[in-house]
Amino acid sequence: MLYHLFEYLREQGTHFAGIGLMHYISVRGILGGITALLIALLAGKKIIAFLQKKQIGEEIRDLGLEGQLAKKGTPTMGGVIIILSVLIPVLLFGDLTNPNTQLLIFTTVWLGFLGGLDDYIKVFKHHKDGLNGKFKILGQVILGLVVGLSLCYNEGLAFREGTAVKSSEAAVKTVQDPATSTEVFESNEIMTTIPFVKNHEFHYSWLSPFKGKADDIFTKILYILVIIFIITGCSNGANLTDGMDGLAAGVSAIVGAALGGLAYVSGHVVYADYFDIMYIENSGDIAVYMMALLGALMGFLWYNSYPAQIFMGDTGSLTLGGIIGVCAVLIRKELLLPILCGIFLVESLSVIIQRYYFKYTKKKYGAGRRVFRMSPLHHHFQRNDIEALIKKPQQAHPEAKIVMRFYIVSMVLAVLAIITLKIR
């Protein structure tokens, strides 16, 4: 709102010191991050006190983990702090006419509602399983459809290849962009970034066995399905990672910072050309959103770091994963997510592997066997008293040490994901 107010005053010819600052994405991003941090710190304390008063606490199942039962009764649904701390700065400093900002706001509200409903059922209805998994998946699929259709048919979501700007509609005209003095083409090309190859650009149409109109339809359907898979995978991956104090919030902050940096560079025609990466029109405001997210997570970690005073619950974890997935899709870096979100990936894989191996061995030998001592993976490092195929580490580690090491791995993966853009 402040951004639009300053822009309106500038257009009306009003002049005063600092009126042009809101025009800069870097300034708005910094202001958004600082505001989000302050909101999380100030509102977080009041929200924690309110949740404690209402006795909205986590119900803990005894899994034999050190210090686990001490967490019983810790306030949950702390994702509300993150959501408020993100949305308020974005409404103040973001460009609300930008379709990227609109999609990210919708993602935050939609998944926040979905996760909040799950937490509500767990806490107030005392159903430990929460919202039925089918409804969670359905909500994530709906979000994927909205994002996918927007990317396929919204002309405001365009990207540039070299000196030519391309959108996802069929090629019908060529115009001159006076701001950049480059030709602007409308095209049916749906592209993304792929690491380790010379031009690091992948055309989804390369997978189509059809030509003409059928090719266009097939490519868009395939692209939408990929988006649905990515958003669902990221959202659930963040949800599974949320099992230790500060783990999901810290890892999400690292991933969000990397995506925010990529969004800023991708939205600047000079920087995109310098780094030889895809220029994505209107994507600069994604960096403002991710800076707000980073500030919100830093403020939330003030209370969520070990020993946690509040848990984010599904309200936060589903939302964080969804924002990360949507952001990666919007800046066409979704194929970097297996590296960038490596922690989310291995956490999800550990659950899948453990479940299917246990069922397989139970059917074959009459008793289920384990690959990991416990899943998701972070719990494996807390136990040394359970027989499993993977026997290391031999000594159980404290929760705080595991979280810090996951942070370090996540930072390394973020650096590797960015480096892949220069290794071709």
Question: Keyphrases for this structure?
Answer:
424 residues; two-stranded antiparallel sheet; 7 strands; 58% helix; 5% strand
Count helical runs: 14
- Please state the CA-atom Rg, rounded to the nearest Å: 23 Å
Major beta-sheet overview? 3 strands, antiparallel
- Give helix % range: 55-70%
Shape: globular
Q: Total domains, how many? A: 1
Structural class: mainly alpha
| N-to-C CA distance | 42 Å
Approximately what portion of the residues adopt beta-strand conformation?
5-15%
Mean pLDDT: 88
Secondary-structure element string: HHHHHEEEEEEHHHEHHHHHH
Number of strands: 7
Summarize the model shown.
The chain is mainly α and 424 residues long.
Could you characterize what this model shows?
The chain is mainly α. The protein has one domain. The protein is 58% helix and 5% strand. The strands form 3 sheets. It has a 3-stranded antiparallel sheet with strand order 2-1-7. Strands 3-4 form a two-stranded antiparallel ribbon. It has a two-stranded antiparallel sheet with strand order 5-6.
Helix-strand layout with pairing:
Blueprint: H1 2-11, H2 25-53, H3 79-93, H4 99-123, H5 133-153, E1 159-161, E2 164-166, E3 174-177, E4 182-185, E5 191-193, E6 201-203, H6 213-241, H7 247-266, H8 269-274, E7 279-280, H9 284-304, H10 313-330, H11 337-340, H12 342-365, H13 377-380, H14 399-419
Antiparallel strand pairs: 1-2, 1-7, 3-4, 5-6
Helix pairs in contact: 2-3, 2-9, 3-4, 3-9, 3-10, 4-5, 4-10, 5-6, 6-10, 6-12, 7-9, 7-10, 7-14
